[in-house]
Amino acid sequence: METADVLIIGAGASGSVAAYHLAKEGFSVVCLEQGTWVKQEEYPGNKPAWEILSQKRWHPNPNIRELAIDYPVNTNESDVNALMYNAVGGGTALYAAQWWRFHPSDFRVRSLDGVADDWPISYQDLEPFYRQLDIEMGVSGLAGNPAYPEGNSPPLPPLPIGQIGRKAAEGMNKLGWHWWPGYNAIPSRQYRNLNKCARRGTCLTGCPEGSKASMDLVYWPEAIKHGAKLITGARVREIIVNEQGLAKGAVYVDRRGREHFQSASVVIMAANGVGTPRLLLLSQSSHFPDGLANSSGLLGKRLMMHPYAAVVGTFEEHLESWVGPAGELINSMEFYETDEKRGFVRGAKWNCMPTGGPLGFRSAYGGRPIKESWGENFHLNVKKNFARSFEWGIIAEDLPDELNQVLLDNELIDSDGIAAPKIIYKTSDNTRKLMDFHIDRIREAMEASGATGMSETRLMRDSGWHLLGTARMGDNPKISVVNQWCQSHDVPNLYIIDGSVFVTSAGVNPTATIAAIALRTVDHLIKERRNQEVPATV
Amino acid sequence: MSNRFIKEQERVILESIADELIPAYEEMPSAIDANVITFWGEEVLKLRHDLREPFFRALRQLKGDESLGPQDRLENLQRNDGEAFNALGVVLAGGYFMNPDIRSKIGYPGQASRIDYEAEEIPDYSREGLLDPVLKRGPIYRQV
Predict the structure, then answer these.
(1) CB atoms within 10 A of CB A211
(2) Smallest Cα distance from B20 to chain A, Å
(3) Could you give the CA distance from residue B114 to residue B109 in angstroms, rounded to a whole number?
(4) Contacts 24+ apart (CB under 8 A), A127-131
(5) Which of A99, A181, A279, B81 could join A185 via S-S bond, C-beta 3.0 to 4.6 A?
(6) pTM for this entry
(7) How many CB atoms lie within 10 A of CB B78?
(8) At what angle do helices A13-24 and A511-527 cross, to 10 degrees?
(9) Do B140 and A147 touch (CB under 8 A)?
(10) Listed residue (A171, A160, A204, A172) closest to A355, CA to CA
(11) Do B142 and A105 touch (CB under 8 A)?
(12) CA nearest A9: which of A39, A40, A35, A41?
């Protein structure tokens, strides 16, 4: 197999951005992705069985989904389950496509709030890349949000907020609280090869309309046109280094169980905040007995997962609660920035979301007494709740803690016999106080909107979509894994560009920032290509 | 008939408890009358292989308690085997809500396509000034 200029591990959010931009600049790129392409017609959102299929085949938790290409994750010691999807496009196949920039304060948590750490980069460093990605992804939203500095101007108009967005906004206005139309990487009109959003509200199980900006649609066709080679069904089991300690390629297993070696001058890890540390921990050698690029001892540590809480309010009026996007209809940053008077630091962004079909209300079949959920009440609950509700959910910023981590499990393996990851994750006192505060505020907002009933989920176990922090960025090699260019301190031709590099998690959806960091990294790689240290022979 | 999941004897068991779970009520038919047992439940089992084992385990346990009334049989099942009770519930309710007549009665068109909007038009919330209080407050982000 020919040596590639760049080998990318993972065809998800960050890997896709990197593959396209590097291939466009003439690099020979090979990307190894353990999943496959998902055809648009496979997505269940336009089928009557959508809710039934969402509970298993299209569930975001690999331990529930149990597809052949999923690997198990031991979450026995975690408050939150890790969610992910292995495919071309990675997690963007099933993401909500809420597209959020970090805020300037998110990069300065230590300086401002005396906890965690500052990033080695700033909002200003990422701003040009956020802007470029808004255009590449076709982001819909409204400029002028007072929760941001000037310049956050999505190229497409916001998607309709629907009856539930309006109901939520009216409540916020009564309280004098911030709200804004949703930011979604979902086009509000035909945009390049993406279709206009049809508001089906099935974004979280994949978009059957070809609207949602998943990376398989936005980047891969163009990356391949520019010569990038995408090998699917390729499960990487180890990154190999040479005698000088430089990465020289990856060993992977194809779907027939055969092993291959792909050599490269530069290796880029883009396998998400669980997959990347897992693979690097598996890549031990005499140079790196504790895992590749782990001289700091921080690989796998400081896992952050954005624990999610939600309140569903029900109303007298019919609100067509199933209409999307899902996505977000509106959001609020009222309680985002730190106010120490609250008894905790940092905050959370709220997103207003639709509540789906009639079966979704019945998620607690087994738990409640039969008389409460069944019999006449089966019908009364539908009459009262279905189509008359919306959800306010919170993306809570959790702080980095070295005890929260990704390890290699002692026993669990994937279908290729490779050690599976185990995650240890406990919410902190600060996180719990933060979440309790926000739930109480949401309840006030729901009341202000006129809710006649509410149900809350204080900590949603299946909410670990955002896998962050496990190969943190920093200037000091003793306390970080990569530098500000996502280049490993230990291995100059190894880069990590996924959410692993996050220093802090912010309280907003991370995909826009993951993509912006990836884009900034490859921009730097391209400009510095002549100075890049690579193996003499691979 | 032989390639149905739910065989004749099992149908009898289901019919003996179905009205406890999804009875007729006002304009809404029972699960039996909505053809959940004869058709829609089959559709669910076709799509969800993971439900089959616990679903049939539920039926076996319900048969074992035949001497009791339907309410007691279901309460026993829920208490002794929550997974099986859940599977039974998903098959019945899931099948019920897949029935287009039921959907029509509850006013659910499915996650239907709605492209009849013009994003370029000024949204009503802007025209009506719903964002004005937000804009009037000015910046709320923390300066760095």
Answers:
(1) 31
(2) 5
(3) 11
(4) A127/A151, A129/A515, A129/A516, A129/A517, A129/A519, A129/A520, A129/A523, A130/A101, A130/A512, A130/A513, A130/A516
(5) A99
(6) 0.97
(7) 22
(8) 30
(9) yes
(10) A204
(11) yes
(12) A35
Q: Does B12 touch chain A (CB under 8 A)?
A: no
- Which of A119, A124, A379 to mutate to test binding with chain B, by most B CBs within 10 Å of its CB? A379
Q: Does B110 touch chain A (CB under 8 A)?
A: yes
| φ, ψ at A118 (rounded to 5°) | -85, 150
> Residues 46-85, chain B: which have Cβ within 8 Å of A?
47-48, 50, 71, 74-75, 78, 82-83, 85
pLDDT in the model for residue A370: 87
Confidence bin at A537 (pLDDT 50/70/90): low
CA A515/CA A94 separation, integer angstroms: 16
Interface test with A, best of B68, B104, B120, B134 (most A CBs within 10 A): B134
B93 at A interface, C-beta within 8 A? yes
Residue A159 pLDDT class (50, 70, 90 cuts) = very high
Is A353 in a helix, a strand, or coil?
Answer: strand
Spatial distance between the Cα atoms of A70 and A483, rounded to a whole number of angstroms: 31
The one-letter code for the residue type at A505 is S
Burial of A146 (0-12, 13-18, 19+ CB in 10 A): middle
CA contacts within 13 A on the Cβ side of A419: 17
Chain B contact set for A53 (CB, 8 A): 47
* ipTM of predicted complex: 0.95
Interchain contact B129–A (C-beta under 8 A): no
Chain B environment of A161 (Cβ under 8 Å):
123, 125
Please state, in angstroms and as integers, the Cα–Cα distance from residue B129 to each residue in A142, A434, B132, following that order. Answer: 14, 32, 5
Distance set, CA B117 to CA B36, B93, B122 (Å): 37, 33, 11
